[in-house]
Specification:
Layout: E1 4-9, H1 13-24, H2 26-33, E2 37-43, H3 47-54, E3 59-61, H4 64-68, E4 75-78, H5 85-95, E5 99-102, H6 105-122, E6 126-127, H7 138-145, E7 151-157, H8 160-172, H9 176-186, H10 194-197, H11 200-214, E8 224-225, H12 233-241, E9 244-254, E10 259-269, E11 281-288, E12 292-299, H13 303-320, E13 351-361, H14 366-376, E14 381-386, E15 395-402, E16 405-406, H15 407-418, E17 423-432
Parallel strand pairs: 1-2, 1-4, 2-3, 4-5, 5-6, 8-10, 10-17
Antiparallel strand pairs: 7-9, 7-11, 9-10, 11-12, 13-15, 13-16, 13-17, 14-15
Helix pairs in contact: 1-13, 2-13, 5-6, 6-11, 8-9, 14-15
Bound molecules: L-homoserine.
Residues 159-161, 196, 201, 300-301 line the site of L-homoserine.
GO molecular function, one term: homoserine dehydrogenase activity
Binding site for NADPH: 105
Pathway: Amino-acid biosynthesis; L-methionine biosynthesis via de novo pathway; L-homoserine from L-aspartate: step 3/3; Amino-acid biosynthesis; L-threonine biosynthesis; L-threonine from L-aspartate: step 3/5
Length: 436
């Protein structure tokens, strides 16, 4: 069979890794795919660097439109990122009847519905293993390996930058700002780290996982997104004293009322395997009704780990390109005409346990007043930690862990506690999941 021909849009870190791994393992990959996979054209604005990276082994152009319009190209690999030019090029590639492989989580989390619909109409594949957790084959696992299951929830450490920062804050007792600077110096965080530290990158990935896990449309606009910028070193320390670690989790959970889709710092028991995922590594825990809990761990970024995912998609497409489009694996695991219309819940309706740090005056009856407010709101206390006031201080920290309740119950209780004259400042609330 003739080799399948690939055009690369962008040859930065991931593009370079894809080129190198495909070349290094070409024989092994051909034996798997049943035909060769050849990168025949690369588009990059920096044509000199692209020519150097490809060693003159394929045509290099500066205009990506040349690739998406080229009649010889079967698959377009989009590695430009963002949802401006990248969306335009992906839509043109689809309109031209080309299959698409992309690592672009932002593009699919926001415009996935439109892109998948266009691809369905043209009978082409859109594959995106590299978009979630880099080299970990989590899309494949959710979409195919676990297809017997009713998936109950997915919880993942799906942003390496923030996991690195949280690990350093815990291990070295440093505050967020100091560690962020260190992460930038080491190249773990971008010069503009907003997408990572504000939880947006993780929310793009959680959105994609929610769609595949539950057969719902991608709905990034319904995701709750809270990053790690307001996390305090003291909360990491108190959490540890109570037997927990704080991780930025992307959570997608099915409940009777609807889907919870949320990204936020989360206390998880230190004894869970996923709590021990440190540094820039990623891990995703999936709970299915038949299989129970399964855990996927690996590198969520980097040239060759991400290339591993991109090439796996190329192999899938090489195998299935000649198959009847209606008999390929659906983009979002469920057949397009069998997607569910389950609502994504507003945060007030989700259930969780909570860590509450309350700054109180060290006076008779303060704790009794707080526990009364919680009891009135039907919130049950699971554990408590009270520190002695520091030298010369009259206020101290009380830390309460609650049992599961609805977020709106906690919101109401927090408002009442903050109104107490014996409580100063805002209560620091962090959600908590047992992941049992
Ligand atoms: N910036 C991401 C991370 C990798 O830190 O995990 C690409 O999604």
């Amino acid at each position: 069979m003739k080799p399948i021909k690939v055009g690369l849009l962008g040859i930065g870190t991931v593009g370079g890794g894809t080129f190198d791994v495909l070349k290094r393992n070409q024989e092994e990959i051909r034996r798997r795919a049943g035909r060769g996979i050849e990168i025949v054209m690369v588009a990059d604005l920096n044509t000199a660097r692209a020519t150097e990276m490809t060693g003159g082994q394929c045509e290099v152009v500066s205009d990506a439109n040349t690739v998406v319009n080229h009649p010889d190209i079967d698959i377009v690999v989009e590695l430009i990122g963002g949802y401006g030019i990248a969306k335009d090029l992906v839509m043109k590639a689809i309109a031209n009847g080309k299959h698409v492989v992309t690592a672009n989580k932002a593009l699919l989390a926001i415009h996935g519905t439109e892109i998948f619909r266009a691809a369905q109409e043209k009978g082409v594949m859109v594959a995106f293993e590299a978009a979630v957790a880099g080299g970990i084959p989590i899309i494949k696992a959710l979409r195919e390996g676990l297809s017997a299951n009713r998936i109950q929830w997915v919880a993942g450490i799906i942003n390496g930058t923030t996991n690195f920062i949280l690990s350093e804050m815990r291990e070295k007792g440093l505050d967020f700002g100091t560690v962020l600077k260190e992460a930038q110096a080491l190249g773990y965080a971008e010069a503009d780290p907003t997408f990572d530290i504000e939880g947006i990158d993780a929310a793009h990935k959680a959105t994609l996982m929610s769609a595949i896990a539950f057969g719902i449309p991608v709905q990034f606009d319904r995701a709750y997104v809270e990053g790690i910028t307001k996390l305090n070193a003291v909360d990491i320390r108190y959490a540890e004293q109570l037997g927990y670690r704080i991780k930025l989790l992307g959570i997608a959970r099915r409940t009777d009322a609807g889907i919870e889709l949320r990204v936020h710092p989360t206390l998880i028991p230190a004894k869970r395997l996923i709590a021990n995922v440190e540094g820039a590594m990623n891990a995703v825990l999936v709970q299915g009704d038949a299989v129970g809990a399964t855990l996927y761990y690996g590198k969520g970024a980097g040239a060759e780990p991400t290339a591993s995912a991109v090439i796996a998609d190329l192999v899938d497409i090489a195998r299935l390109a000649t198959a009847d489009p209606n008999h390929r694996v659906p983009y979002l695991a469920f057949q397009p005409d069998a997607m569910a219309d389950i609502p994504v819940l507003p945060m007030a309706e989700i259930t969780s346990s909570y860590y509450l740090r309350i700054r109180v005056a060290d006076q008779l009856g303060v704790l009794a007043d707080i526990t009364r407010i919680l009891a009135d709101a039907s919130i049950s206390i699971d554990a408590m930690l009270q520190k002695e006031p520091g030298e010369g201080e009259s206020d101290t920290d009380v830390i309460l862990l609650t049992h599961r309740c609805q977020e709106k119950q906690v919101d109401a209780a927090i408002a009442r506690i903050e109104a107490m004259t014996t409580v100063s400042g805002k209560i620091n609330r962090i959600r908590m999941e047992s992941l049992a």
